[in-house]
C-alpha cells in the first residue's frame, strides 16, 4: 500500500512545480511578445530616418486626403461627400465607393490623441498607422499559431512576421494603404475562427464576426476569408470531422458577418448578390443538413435513422438545387456571371490580359518571378514544406486549416505579385511551426544525451503537466466507485472499473514517454550541428529582412534617390511639379495625366483631375489613353472637349527613371483601343517591337505622348539619348502647335504643358471672305464682270 501513497503524494508536487513554470513561461512570453511588437514597429521606421515623414506611393495620398476631410468635417459629411475634384466632369461619391476601415481607424487614433492633449497632425498619424498595426499583426499571428501548435511555435511565427519583407513592403512608415490594417484584420479573424473551433465558444464566434466586419471595412480582400473558411468547413465535413464546435465556428460567422458586411456602403447588397459570396451560403446549407443528421441520429433508432436520413438528404439536395438555380438566375444576366474582374483574373490568369487591360496594366497585378519569392519571404520558402509536414503530426481541425491556407495563398500569390502579402502570414505560421518542432527535437536530443541528467528531467514540463492532471483525474474517478458502491453494480460501473484497472499509472506513463523520446533522440553531434545551422539560417533571415527594410522598401516613390561616384543624389521632381501647379494655376483648372498620378495631383496640387487611381470608369480612362495616342491636333480637341487646361507627363529618359509614361504608353494604346477601335496597337510597333528610335513608326513619332515627352530633349546633350530605352530618339527636332511648355522640373522627370487657346473666329470676316470666294467663282463661270454697286 506504500507505493500508491508515494505516487499520490508526488502528483501534487509535480503539479505545483508545473504551475510555477507555466506562470513564469507566461510572463516570459508576454515580454517576448512585447519585444516582437517593438521590433515590428522599429524595423519599419527606416523610411522616416533616412528620408522624412512623408506619405508614400500613389493610393496612400487619396487615403490621406480622405482622412483629412474626415477629421475636419466629421463622419456624417464623410459618408455624404461628393468629390468634384476627381473624374471631371463625372465626380465621385467618396462615402459609397471607399473601404472606410483605414480612414476611420486613423481618424479615431487622431481624435484619441488630441483628446489626451497630444497634438499630432493628421499626416503624422497616417505615416505611423502601418507600423503600429504591424505589431498588432505579429501578436495576432502568435494567437493563431498558439492555437495550432502551442506557444513556442506562436512566438517563432510572430517574430518571423515582424520582419518578413513581403509585409514590410506594404507597412513601412508612410505606406498609408488599406493593407496596413487589413493584414492584421485577416490574421485576427483567422485566429478567432481557430479559437472558436477549439473551444466551441459562442463568445469567440461573435468576436470572430466582428473581426470579419472590420476586415470588410478595410479591404476588398475580405472575399478571401469568406471563401477560405467555407472551404475548410467543407473539408472537415467530407473527412468526417464534423462537430458542434465546427457548427458554432461557422454558422454565426455567415449570418452575423454577412449582415454586418452589408452595412458597409461600398459592399452593400454585394454581400449576398455576387458570386464571391455564394460558396459560403452553399456550405451554410450543407452544414445544417449534416447537423440535423447528427441530431436525429442521437434520438432515433437505427432503423428510423435510415429513413430519416434519406428524407433529410433528399430535402437538403432539393434545397441546394433550388438555391443554386436561384443563384444562377441572379448571375445569368451578368457577362461575368457575378464575378468581379479581379476575381476572374485570379481564377483565370489570362482573363485580364484578354478582356480588361486596365487591370493587366497595373504592375502589382502581374505574376511574380521566382526571385521575388526569395526576396519577399527569403528562407521561409524552404521551411514551408517542413511546416506543412509538421501540421500532419497530428492532423487536427486547426492544423488542417493552416495547410489549406498555405495551399490557397501559394496559388494566389503565383497569379498576382500583390498577393504575396497574403502568402506572408501563412509562410510565417508554417515556418514557425517547423522551426519550433525542429528546435524541440534538437534540444531534447541534446538534453537526453548530456551526462548527469536525471530521469525525472527527461520529460517536457508541458507534457508532464498534462500527464499528472490525467493521473489526478483517474485517481479521483477511482475513489468514487469505492465510496458509492452498490450491492448490484450496473454494467456501466463494471466497465469503468475494468478500464481503470487497464489504465497504467502516471509514473508508468511518464516512463513510457521518456523511453519513446529516448528512441527518437538524434546523435549528440548531429543535434549540435543542426542547431547551429538553424541559428545561422535565422541570422541570415534577420540580415536580409533588415536590408530589405532599410534599402529596398524604405524609399518613398514621391522622392527618388540614386548613388553614383559623386555620392547620393535626391530627385524631388514630383513634389516640385505639384507645388508649381498649386501656386501657378487657378483653383478650377483641370489637369490631365495618366491615371497613375491622379491621386497625387488631387492631394498635393489640389487641382481637378480627369482620371485617377480608382479606375472605376474604363471609358474615361480610354478617352485619356486615346488622346495620348493621337496626333497633336486630335489630342487637343479631345482635351479641349474635357475642359482640360494642363497636361502632365512623367519622363525618365534623362536620368534613367524606368517607370515613366513612355514605358507605360502601350497600355494607353491598348486601353484606348479597347473602346475606340481606330486606335490599333500594331500601328505603334515596328515588326512587333516597341521602338522610339529612327526605326519607330510614323504613328508613334507623331503621337502626343512622344511629342510631350521628347520636346526639346535634344537640347540636353545634343544627341537626345534616352537612358531608359538606351537609344537615340528618332524625331529630335519638332515644334508644338497646339500645346506650349509651361514647366519642366529640374531633372526633366515631370513636364507640364498648357493647351493653347483656340483661334478667334470673327464672323464678319469669315462671311466676307466666303462671299468674295463665291463671287469670284461665279464671275469666272459667267465670263462677265459683276457691277460693284449692285
Count of separate DSSP helical elements: 35
Count of extended strands:
13
Kindly report how far apart the N and C termini lie.
Answer: 146 Å
Our estimate of the beta-strand percent is 5-15%
Return the average pLDDT rounded to an integer: 84
- Contiguous runs where pLDDT drops below 50 for at least 5 residues: 1-7, 454-503, 776-790
Q: Can you give the helix content as a percent range? A: 55-70%
Helix/strand/pairing category: mainly alpha
Radius of gyration: 34 Å
From the spread of the alpha carbons, the general shape counts as globular
- Report strand order across the widest sheet: 6-5-7-13-12
What composes the largest sheet? 5 strands, mixed
Pfam families: STT3 (PF02516), STT3-PglB_core (PF21436)
Region (Disordered): 456-510, 763-790
Catalytic activity: a di-trans,poly-cis-dolichyl diphosphooligosaccharide + L-asparaginyl-[protein] = N(4)-(oligosaccharide-(1->4)-N-acetyl-beta-D-glucosaminyl-(1->4)-N-acetyl-beta-D-glucosaminyl)-L-asparaginyl-[protein] + a di-trans,poly-cis-dolichyl diphosphate + H(+)
Protein name: dolichyl-diphosphooligosaccharide--protein glycotransferase
Amino acid at each position: 500500500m506504500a507505493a500508491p501513497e508515494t505516487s499520490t503524494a508526488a502528483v501534487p508536487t509535480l503539479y505545483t512545480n508545473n504551475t510555477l513554470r507555466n506562470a513564469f513561461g507566461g510572463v516570459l512570453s508576454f515580454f517576448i511578445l512585447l519585444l516582437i511588437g517593438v521590433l515590428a514597429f522599429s524595423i519599419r521606421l527606416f523610411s522616416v530616418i533616412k528620408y522624412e515623414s512623408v506619405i508614400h506611393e500613389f493610393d496612400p495620398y487619396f487615403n490621406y486626403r480622405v482622412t483629412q476631410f474626415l477629421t475636419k468635417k466629421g463622419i456624417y459629411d464623410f459618408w455624404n461627400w461628393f468629390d468634384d475634384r476627381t473624374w471631371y466632369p463625372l465626380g465621385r461619391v467618396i462615402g459609397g465607393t471607399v473601404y472606410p476601415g483605414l480612414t476611420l481607424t486613423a481618424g479615431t487614433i487622431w481624435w484619441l490623441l488630441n483628446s489626451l492633449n497630444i497634438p499630432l497632425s493628421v499626416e503624422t498619424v497616417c505615416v505611423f498607422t502601418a507600423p503600429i498595426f504591424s505589431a498588432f499583426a505579429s501578436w495576432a499571428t502568435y494567437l493563431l499559431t498558439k492555437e495550432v501548435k502551442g506557444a513556442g511555435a506562436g512566438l517563432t511565427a510572430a517574430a518571423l512576421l515582424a520582419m518578413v519583407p513581403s509585409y514590410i513592403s506594404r507597412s513601412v512608415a508612410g505606406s498609408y494603404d488599406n493593407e496596413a490594417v487589413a493584414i492584421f484584420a485577416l490574421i485576427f479573424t483567422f485566429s478567432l475562427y481557430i479559437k472558436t473551433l477549439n473551444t466551441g465558444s459562442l463568445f469567440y464566434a461573435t468576436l470572430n464576426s466582428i473581426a470579419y466586419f472590420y476586415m470588410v471595412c478595410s479591404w476588398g480582400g475580405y472575399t478571401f476569408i469568406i471563401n477560405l473558411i467555407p472551404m475548410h468547413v467543407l473539408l472537415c465535413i467530407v473527412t468526417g470531422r464534423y462537430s458542434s464546435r465546427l457548427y458554432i465556428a461557422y454558422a454565426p460567422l455567415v449570418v452575423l458577418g454577412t449582415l454586418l458586411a452589408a452595412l458597409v456602403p461600398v459592399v452593400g447588397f454585394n454581400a449576398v448578390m455576387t458570386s464571391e459570396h455564394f460558396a459560403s451560403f452553399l456550405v451554410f446549407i450543407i452544414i445544417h443538413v449534416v447537423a440535423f443528421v447528427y441530431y436525429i441520429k442521437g434520438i432515433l433508432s437505427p432503423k428510423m435513422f435510415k429513413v430519416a436520413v434519406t428524407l433529410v438528404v433528399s430535402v437538403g439536395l432539393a434545397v441546394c438545387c433550388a438555391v443554386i438555380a436561384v443563384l444562377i438566375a441572379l448571375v445569368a444576366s451578368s457577362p461575368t456571371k457575378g464575378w468581379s474582374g479581379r476575381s476572374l483574373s485570379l481564377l483565370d490568369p489570362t482573363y485580364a490580359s484578354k478582356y480588361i487591360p486596365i487591370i493587366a496594366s497595373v504592375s502589382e497585378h502581374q505574376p511574380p518571378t521566382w526571385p521575388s519569392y526569395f526576396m519577399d519571404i527569403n528562407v521561409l520558402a524552404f521551411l514551408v514544406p517542413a511546416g506543412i509536414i509538421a501540421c500532419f503530426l497530428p492532423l487536427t481541425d486547426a492544423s488542417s486549416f493552416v495547410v489549406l491556407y498555405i495551399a490557397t495563398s501559394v496559388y494566389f500569390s503565383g497569379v498576382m505579385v500583390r498577393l504575396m502579402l497574403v502568402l506572408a502570414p501563412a509562410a510565417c505560421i508554417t515556418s514557425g511551426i517547423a522551426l519550433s518542432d525542429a528546435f524541440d527535437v534538437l534540444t531534447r536530443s541534446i538534453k537526453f544525451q548530456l551526462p548527469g541528467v536525471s530521469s525525472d528531467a527527461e520529460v517536457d514540463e508541458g507534457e508532464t503537466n498534462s500527464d499528472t492532471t490525467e493521473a489526478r483525474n483517474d485517481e479521483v474517478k477511482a475513489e468514487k466507485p469505492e465510496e458509492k458502491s452498490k450491492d448490484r453494480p450496473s454494467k456501466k460501473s463494471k466497465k469503468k472499473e475494468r478500464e481503470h484497472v487497464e489504465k497504467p499509472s502516471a509514473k508508468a506513463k511518464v516512463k513510457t514517454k521518456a523511453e519513446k523520446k529516448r528512441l527518437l533522440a538524434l546523435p549528440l553531434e548531429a543535434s549540435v550541428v543542426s542547431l547551429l545551422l538553424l541559428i545561422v539560417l535565422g541570422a541570415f533571415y534577420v540580415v536580409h529582412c533588415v536590408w530589405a527594410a532599410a534599402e529596398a522598401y524604405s524609399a518613398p516613390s514621391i522622392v527618388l534617390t540614386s548613388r553614383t561616384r559623386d555620392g547620393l543624389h535626391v530627385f524631388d521632381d514630383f513634389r516640385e511639379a505639384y507645388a508649381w501647379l498649386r501656386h501657378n494655376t487657378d483653383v478650377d483648372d483641370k489637369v490631365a495625366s495618366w491615371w497613375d498620378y491622379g491621386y497625387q495631383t488631387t492631394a498635393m496640387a489640389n487641382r481637378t483631375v480627369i482620371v485617377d487611381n480608382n479606375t472605376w470608369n474604363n471609358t474615361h480612362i480610354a478617352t485619356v489613353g486615346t488622346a495620348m495616342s493621337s496626333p497633336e491636333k486630335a489630342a487637343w480637341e479631345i482635351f479641349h472637349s474635357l475642359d482640360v487646361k494642363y497636361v502632365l507627363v512623367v519622363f525618365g529618359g534623362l536620368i534613367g527613371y524606368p517607370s515613366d509614361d513612355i514605358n507605360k504608353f502601350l497600355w494607353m494604346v491598348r486601353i484606348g483601343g479597347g473602346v475606340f477601335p481606330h486606335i490599333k496597337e500594331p500601328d505603334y510597333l515596328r515588326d512587333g517591337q516597341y521602338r522610339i528610335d529612327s526605326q519607330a513608326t510614323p504613328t508613334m513619332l507623331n503621337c502626343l505622348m512622344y511629342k510631350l515627352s521628347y520636346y526639346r530633349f535634344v537640347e540636353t546633350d545634343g544627341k537626345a539619348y534616352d537612358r531608359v530605352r538606351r537609344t537615340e530618339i528618332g524625331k529630335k527636332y519638332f515644334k508644338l502647335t497646339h500645346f506650349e511648355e509651361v514647366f519642366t522640373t529640374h531633372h526633366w522627370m515631370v513636364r507640364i504643358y498648357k493647351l493653347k487657346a483656340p483661334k478667334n473666329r470673327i464672323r464678319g470676316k469669315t462671311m466676307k471672305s466666303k462671299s468674295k470666294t463665291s463671287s469670284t467663282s461665279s464671275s469666272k463661270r459667267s465670263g462677265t464682270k459683276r457691277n460693284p454697286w449692285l
